[in-house]
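Reminder to self: tokens first, then the designed residues, so the page reads top to bottom the way the pipeline ran.
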């Protein structure tokens, strides 16, 4: 991750197109939504990025996100009461194109597409321990782990998964320029992962074949690194 950041910084700072460069930092707060085998739930996170926009309005950059992701709900039936919490970090290089709206071009719509890596560390359990025990007796390890009381009886079933996966990330950003070098933005997108382990629930059934997805929503600030030249 450190190497990627150093390379991107070197590219951005050494460009000779001073008049048209739009090299920028961005920082944002996030609210990821999980779409996994557990019920959807909201989390929280932060995003940091470097971005370059050429004179043609095409752009590229790299974004580093850190998210706390949750899933699960007590309101469902006993067979659907799985819940989890996860620490998720991602590094997503991306390309995009800026459509500036209206005469003053302060409002911008920016579709983008990225592909990168997502690391996760997840723990899960069941609101109703008996539901987990039934699944454990059916599927056993390595899908589930057992927790025993002092008498050697199973009292709880838990799950643990960690790893790194590839993810595609389509996004759409709505931005508004408050100054020539400052704009606020709201971005909506997805991390389409290549794993079913992000929620730590992955059993071999026909109804559990889909990959895990995170909806990533951010509100933040973009700051251009150059000063406008006087004519």
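Designed residues (231 positions):
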């Amino acid at each position: 991750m450190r190497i990627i950041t150093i390379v991107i910084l070197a590219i951005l700072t050494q460009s000779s197109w001073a008049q048209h460069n739009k090299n920028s930092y961005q920082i944002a707060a996030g609210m990821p939504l999980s779409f996994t085998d557990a019920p959807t739930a909201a989390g929280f996170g932060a995003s940091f990025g470097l971005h370059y926009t050429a004179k043609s309005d095409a752009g590229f950059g790299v974004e580093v996100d850190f998210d706390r992701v949750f899933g699960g709900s007590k309101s469902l039936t006993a067979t659907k009461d799985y819940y989890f919490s996860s620490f998720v970090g991602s590094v997503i290089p991306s390309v995009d194109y800026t459509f500036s709206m209206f005469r003053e071009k302060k409002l911008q719509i920016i579709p983008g597409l990225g592909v990168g890596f997502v690391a996760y560390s997840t723990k899960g359990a069941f609101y109703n321990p008996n539901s987990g025990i039934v699944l454990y007796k059916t599927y056993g390890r390595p899908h589930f782990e057992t927790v025993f009381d002092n008498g050697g009886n199973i009292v709880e079933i838990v799950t643990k998964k960690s790893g790194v996966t590839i993810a595609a990330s389509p996004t759409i950003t709505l931005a508004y320029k408050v100054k020539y070098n400052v704009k606020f933005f709201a971005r909506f997108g997805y991390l389409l992962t290549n794993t079913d382990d992000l929620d730590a629930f992955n059993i071999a059934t026909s109804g559990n074949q889909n990959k895990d997805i995170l909806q990533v929503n951010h509100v933040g600030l973009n700051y251009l690194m150059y000063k406008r030249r006087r004519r």
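The first strand starts at residue 22 and ends at 30.
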